[in-house]
Structure formats: C-alpha cells, structure tokens
Write a structure and sequence with these properties.
Elements lengths: L2 H35 L8 H14 L5 H10 L1 H11 L10 H15 L5 E6 L5 H12 L6 E7 L2 H9 L1 E3 L3 H10 L10 E4 L2 E4 L7 E4 L1 H6 L2 H10 L1
Parallel strand pairs: 1-2, 2-6
Antiparallel strand pairs: 3-5, 4-5
Length: about 230
Amino acid sequence: MTAMERGYDEQADNAGSRQELEQIEIELLLNGVHRLYGYDFRNYALPSLKRRIWHHVHAENVPTISALQEKVLHDRACFERFVYSLSIPVTEMFRDPGLFLTFRQKVIPLLRTYPYIRIWHAGCSTGEEVYSMAILLHEEGLYDKARIYATDMNARSLQQAKEGVYEIGRMKQYTKNYMEAGGTRAFSEYYTAKYNSVILQPFLRKTSFLPSIIWQQTLPLMSLMSFFAAM
C-alpha cells in the first residue's frame, strides 16, 4: 500500500468516525428531548432533521450537537427555540384545492347523514387549512353541527392559528385556491382587512386549538378520540 493509499484510508476512517459520532449525538439529543419534554422527533427523516439540528447548533452558538443537547435539556427557552426550528410551518388557505373540491363533492354528502360531526386536524401549523375546512362546512350548511379540533407541537404557530390573523399579501393566492376548491361566495366575505393584515370573521374561530403534547405524552389514538368525544 502506498503512502497516498494509506492517507485515503485514514481519511475514510476519520470520516466514518465523525459520521458515527454525529449519529450518536443526534440519537442522544432526540432521546433526551423525548424523555424530558415528551416530544418525539426520533422517526423524522434523518437528512432533513440533521440539517435543521446543525442549523440550530450554529444559531445557539455552540460547537457540537452534544453542547446543544446540554443547553436544550437545561434551558426551557432554548428547547422552545429548538422545537420551533424543527417545525417550520408550511400551509395556506385551501392548500391542494383539488383535495378540498373532492371533499366537498364526495365526503360532504356522507357527512350530511350524521347528526354531529367532529374533525381533527393533526399538525395544523398556523391554522389556514383548519379555517379552510370551517369555510367549506359553513357553505355546505354543516358548520353548526360540527366541532373542529386542531393540534400542533409549535406553540407560536398555535397562537397565530387561534388569533386568525394573516398577511394581506397572501389573499390573492388564497382567493385563487378558494375558487379552485369550489368556493361558492366571495372569499373576501370571510375576513376583514386592516393595514397589512387580515383577520378572519369571528364565527370561523370556534375551533379548539390544542398543543400536541396533550396526546404525545399520555394519550394513545383511541383514548384521544374518546377525549375529543367528551369535549
């Protein structure tokens, strides 16, 4: 074996060791977060998770994932920033209009046969798709007999969802989505514009927005459904 070949082997060994160490650090961080706070990120897609963890390592100005783990486990504010960095909101009103159109055409007739309707939005983000469902049910005459629940692990997103306030610049796209989803009225009827924001009409904001931790820590799926049924 030449000196160059030995050098390549040593580099490969070092790279393998770094990758193994990184994997161990990530596992310890996620296990610690799960055990202490009840949030379980252990089955998230590793490539995306790794990028977001390293981004947060740099944001917190710490040298390693292990150092981030120590800070996250001992500093609640750091943990909350960490959770927010792992749950970037991706949503919009009537996102995937075809889905909402199919729901209106195929599912609504079935829901009309029920005396009462409960709908759960898991991972509701900032609430746009939840309010989209409320608008759809309202237009189909089912909103008064429906109860909508929405959960998300991101406290900031939940707070915005509860407030129902969004940027006015998004309304053009949201209106387009609404029309493609089979909307039957003027979308502007569902909000009031003020400066650079809009606020959704009060009658749409009766959804129960809840933190995911309620069921992540203690409730299996069947117990969760019983929990919602009792509310």
